[in-house]
């Protein structure tokens, strides 16, 4: 099927909504479209626009107090993602009084840069707690120790905290949950990474590759990853930006700041390819929180 003939028709939209209503996951709908010959970018656009339009219609129905349609719940469940909901809000004041600044926000892909997510004292304490437990970093899926292995693309040292392991960890996890509107138990343990001069993390995706060996077992622990929050614990003297090559975005690693991004389906069409540029001087410390679609055990 040529790109020229791949118009997003009403028939295609109706088919997509029928699949969602039947309980199909967005990634399965996308895969079926690609198998049928749809170009990846067109398939992603059709899925996103169709569901977004349906959600807008649902909100209008809700505002008129009309009874909910069965399709509403199905579409909303399919699109449910962590998101701070910060449109037009320059500063978010959390329930504990902590203030987080919104420095930048992007829609597609969904990327938000926060200022002051962590205090200097919190950054220093996290580094002190993690330093004695650092080891050579492993794969993106290393939260599952049974399937972890050394990752050649990541030249850093790292460790994982258990969820709620320390009072500080518990406080940060509660802050993440409130800001991103995502349950604490839908998150993996906090990972701490240290990048020395020359260290980097080449561009990659955070979701688990559906066709990769071991993915089925990993997904049993909480489903797919749907969002990432990277918190900067130090400011290197040079280098170390978090890069998003598909959209030409570089986020500077500034102590206390954080960058969040989400991905509705495990597919490159989400444009969430990202990496850690080489550290040119000094050290970069980061804390990463991966969010799952279900309860992580």
Keywords, separated by commas or semicolons:
297 residues; alpha+beta; Jelly Rolls; 4-stranded antiparallel sheet; 15 strands
Explain the overall architecture:
The chain has 297 residues and is α+β, with helices and mostly antiparallel strands. The chain folds into 2 domains: 69 residues, no CATH class; 202 residues, Jelly Rolls, CATH 2.60.120.620. The protein is 29% helix and 23% strand. The chain is built from 7 helices and 15 strands. The protein has a 9-stranded antiparallel β-sheet with strand order 1-2-3-12-8-15-6-5-4, covered by helices on one side. Strands 7-13-10-11 form a 4-stranded antiparallel β-sheet, with no helix packed on it. Strand 2 and strand 3 form a beta hairpin. Helix 2 packs antiparallel against helix 3. The longest helix is centred in the first third of the chain and has 24 residues. The radius of gyration is 20 Å and the shape is globular. About 7% of the residues have low confidence.
Strand sequence of the main sheet, in spatial order? Answer: 1-2-3-12-8-15-6-5-4
**Topology pattern, helix = H, strand = E:** HHHHEEEHEEHEEHEEEEEEEE
Task: Give the total of beta strands.
Answer: 15
Shape: globular
SS-derived structural category: alpha+beta
Question: So what's the CATH class of the largest domain?
Answer: Mainly Beta
Radius of gyration: 20 Å
- From the 3D coordinates, which CATH architecture of the largest domain would you assign? Sandwich
Largest sheet: 9 strands, antiparallel
Number of domains: 2
Quote the average pLDDT.
87
Helix content: 25-40%
Strand % is: 15-25%
Q: Count of helical segments?
A: 7
Low-pLDDT stretches: 66-73, 139-150
């Amino acid at each position: 099927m040529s790109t020229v003939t791949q118009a997003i028709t009403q028939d295609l939209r109706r088919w997509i909504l029928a699949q969602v209503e039947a309980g199909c996951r967005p990634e399965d709908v996308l895969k079926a479209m690609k198998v049928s010959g749809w170009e990846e970018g067109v398939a992603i656009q059709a899925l996103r626009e169709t569901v977004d339009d349906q959600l807008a219609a649902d909100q209008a129905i809700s505002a008129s107090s009309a009874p909910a349609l069965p399709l509403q719940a199905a579409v909303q469940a399919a699109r449910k993602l962590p998101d701070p909901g910060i449109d037009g809000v320059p500063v978010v004041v959390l329930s504990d009084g902590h203030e987080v600044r919104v420095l930048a926000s992007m829609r597609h892909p969904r990327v938000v840069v926060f200022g002051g997510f962590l205090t200097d004292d919190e950054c220093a304490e996290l580094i002190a707690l993690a330093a004695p437990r650092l080891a050579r970093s492993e794969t993106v899926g290393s939260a599952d120790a049974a399937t972890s292995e050394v990752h050649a693309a990541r030249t850093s040292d790292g460790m994982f905290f258990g969820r709620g392991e320390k009072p500080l960890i518990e406080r940060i996890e509660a802050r993440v949950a409130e800001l991103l509107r995502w349950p604490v138990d839908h998150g993996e343990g906090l990972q701490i990474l240290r990048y020395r001069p020359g260290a980097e993390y080449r561009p990659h995706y955070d979701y688990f590759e559906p066709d990769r060996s071991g993915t089925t077992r990993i997904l049993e622990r909480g489903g797919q990853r749907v969002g990432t929050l990277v918190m900067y614990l130090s400011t290197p003297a040079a280098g170390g930006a978090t890069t998003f090559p598909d959209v030409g975005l570089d986020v500077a690693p500034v102590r206390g700041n954080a960058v969040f991004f989400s991905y509705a389906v495990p597919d490159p069409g989400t444009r969430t390819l990202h990496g850690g540029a080489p550290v040119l001087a000094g050290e970069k410390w980061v804390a990463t929180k991966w969010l799952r679609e279900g309860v992580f055990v």
